[in-house]
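Folding follows sequence. Below is one example:
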Amino acid sequence: MAEALDTVLITGASKGLGLAVVKELLDAGYRVVGVARSRSREVDALLESSCEQFHFECFDLNRVAEIKGLVAVLNKSYGRFYGLVNNAGIGSDGVLATMHEKDISNVFNVNLVAPTLLCKYISRGMLVNRRGCIVNIASIIASTGFSGLSVYGASKAGLLGLTKSLSRELGKAGIRVNCVSPGYLETNMTDGMKKIQLDAIRRRSPFDRFPTVEEVAKTVRFLVSPEGSGIHGANLIVDLGSTA
């Protein structure tokens, strides 16, 4: 269980995997601060039922120049954070040669620049406390590749590199840094994919299904919790054997 007043910041917290992580960490006893571009009905319900344990802030992580100010406001409101889960991410499905430069910039801003800056500013409080935990949500696409997801894959590969080096920087201060790389999940990010594509991907797994957001969220919970204290600088793949 979490220690008293251990607070975890989760990005992309209004739906999908982020919302599942919120629920897991609330269940584990953490105080959770969720960040996303907008609130959802599920967030509203959690705010009503867990009003003292769950808090939510609307913020678009594409506004990378404002992240330093966001963290200052969060620290003033909630104190120093014990945990950070960089979950927010966007995909831009399309061949690189025809992709608009603005779309490329948006993917890198949300998927890599924003997590890097959040690590930079949130970890300052962790360094003062000499304890903390960071979990970056990457993707198996970072290592396997997929046609039409070159920019998305590059941004997630950057998260893997960030995790490895940051674990070296922060480990001496008692701060653990890890990565979780989910396989394909049936969320809004895969809604635009054709059924034939999804069926082909699903068949790669010996289980003939995609992992659920709950299965991935439980892995994040494990890494954040004391039970995961021996894992540092790692990348845990949750894909039901698709890349085995």
